[in-house]
Amino acid sequence: MAVSPVDLGRYLDGMTFPAKKNDLRRKALDNHAPDVVIDIINNLPERSFTSPVDINRAMDEIE
To answer: Into how many domains does the chain fold?
Structure first.
């Protein structure tokens, strides 16, 4: 199952930025994200993300 930026955004609803990867993972888990979304977050680089657009760019880099 591919995850679109819109899908990912839904599971990160309520996230405040900047946010670290662990913050993204915690928010996604709180929003009942499926394993595929958690896997994508786990593969993001260890850094601070400034916005949803920043996350989408990082997602493009890991695909």
So the answer is: 1
